[in-house]
UniProtKB/TrEMBL annotation:
PROSITE patterns: PROKAR_LIPOPROTEIN. Keywords: Sugar transport, Transport. Gene3D superfamilies: Periplasmic binding protein-like II. It comes from the Bacteria. This is Multiple sugar transport system substrate-binding protein. It comes from Nonomuraea angiospora. The keyword Transport applies. CDD domains: PBP2_TMBP_like.
Length: 430
């Protein structure tokens, strides 16, 4: 499932447009073109950065020419232009966990090792380790994260109080017990809801997998979805939905369907990306907006290990003939000032300093800020297998989730999936 744009971003395609403001100051860089051609996705981050472009152009004397596209159109353009080695894209907004490995393997993304070290004030060390891990390929930074997501626990404060629970669950065992208790006492309310579709569920299941001590591959790169930890995680996630989930639960729910159940007041607990929180807290979208709370992802046998990932990043097209000026744009757009401005508008960033700044968290619910802080501390930098053919891999590793939800043998399903996933990894390595 394609990761959705967050915070109500329009999915309509916006025609390519050149944006410029008064020039002045700066010499335009290293002899490259003074026009930096930047391809961005439809997203609130993009809308915000466009409004701030006059500042960039005034500071640098460069002109920013923006092409803004919906996700499908963005992918189509990249497929055509990057495969052809086109130089008419300088800066590219991309999804590190969806196409990042493919782009890096095919050498579409420039190595930014020297650039990230050049400006100490910009401070690459300020970026959280999980998102940096996801924008690194073979030890080299190939992108800079701009938007992050972590998995947190959404819950209903009123239902917890009614059940005599003084605080949200801190462990997965406590979550299981609380969900069962509420479902038993509230016949029309599920104790727990989450994504159930084979592919969409993989990302949210990943935090359960890590918190049980597992991962999609082991330290040697071999398939590991039938490890003891993985089998326990599949059984737990599937069993939680089977036993405490909605009646006659569907096995093709993505986040819109799962979120709808929660916001209609039909579930007590819900694990999901923090970036979607306004769907639950906005009275126009949620019947339970006044009673929604947030908590860190509950700890399993391996601790609390939610994902902390960049949903989008900026990179430099390796075929660009204007790489120095392309980096000037990235340096400005990902600097502390712009990251703070973006975060205040509701776009969660990857800089530690911005999360530590009260101004940077002023627009977020207090308990969500605390949950995010816990997630970024020990977060894992991927929420799906780190492979080239991501969609195919998700279909494979997601099958045991569906099998566990429907009451089949999760361990046997994990063994079958592991054999298929190992063959997939072997084929990709050829």
């Amino acid at each position: 499932m394609r990761r959705r744009a967050i915070f109500g971003t329009s999915l309509a395609v916006v025609a390519a447009m050149g944006l410029s403001a008064c020039g002045g100051g700066g010499d335009g860089g290293d002899g490259g073109s003074k026009t930096v051609r930047i391809t961005l996705a439809n997203h609130v981050w993009t809308d915000n950065i466009k409004k701030a472009l006059p500042e960039f152009e005034k500071q640098t004397g460069l002109k920013a020419e923006i092409t803004q596209l919906g996700e499908d159109q963005l992918s189509d353009q990249y497929n055509v232009k990057l495969n052809a080695g086109s130089s008419d894209i300088d800066v590219m907004m991309y999804r590190p966990l969806q196409e990042g490995r493919l782009f890096a393997k095919n050498k579409y993304l420039a190595d930014l090792s020297e650039q990230v070290k050049a400006n100490k004030d910009w401070d690459f060390g300020d970026f959280q380790s999980g998102p940096v891990e996801a924008t690194t390929y073979e030890g080299k930074p190939v992108g800079v994260p701009i938007i992050t997501e972590q998995e947190v626990l959404y819950y209903r404060k009123d239902l917890l109080a009614k059940a005599g629970l003084s605080a949200p669950p801190k462990t997965l065992d406590e979550l299981k017990a609380a969900a069962a208790k509420i479902k038993a006492s509230e016949p029309d309310v599920a104790g727990f809801v989450a994504r159930t579709g084979k592919s969409p569920a993989v990302t949210q299941f990943s935090s359960f997998l890590y918190s049980f001590g597992g991962d999609f591959v082991d330290g040697s790169g071999k398939a590991a979805v039938n490890s003891d930890a993985a089998k326990q995680a599949y059984a737990f996630y599937g069993g939680l939905i089977k036993d405490s989930g909605p009646a006659n639960v569907s096995t093709d729910m993505g986040w819109p369907e799962a979120m709808a159940i929660f916001t209609q007041g039909k579930a007590a607990f819900y694990t999901e990306a923090n970036s979607l929180y306004k769907n639950a807290t906005d009275p126009a979208k949620s019947k339970v907006s006044d009673n929604v709370g947030f908590a860190p992802f509950p700890a399993g046998p391996g601790g609390s290990k939610p994902y902390n990932i960049p949903s989008w990043a900026l990179g430099v097209n390796s075929s660009s003939e204007n790489t120095a000026n392309a980096w000037k744009f990235i340096e400005w757009a990902t600097g502390k000032a712009q990251t703070l401005a973006q975060q205040k508008s509701g776009v969660p960033g990857a800089r530690t300093s911005v999360w530590a700044d009260p101004e940077g968290t002023s627009t977020f619910p207090k308990d969500l800020v605390e949950a995010i802080a816990a997630s970024t501390k020990d977060g894992v930098g991927h929420d799906r297998p780190l492979v080239v053919k991501v969609a195919e891999s998700r279909e494979i590793v997601g099958q045991p989730i569906v099998d566990a939800i429907t009451g089949k043998d999760a361990a046997a399903a994990a063994d079958t999936a592991n054999a298929a996933f190992q063959k997939f990894l072997d084929d990709e390595a050829k």
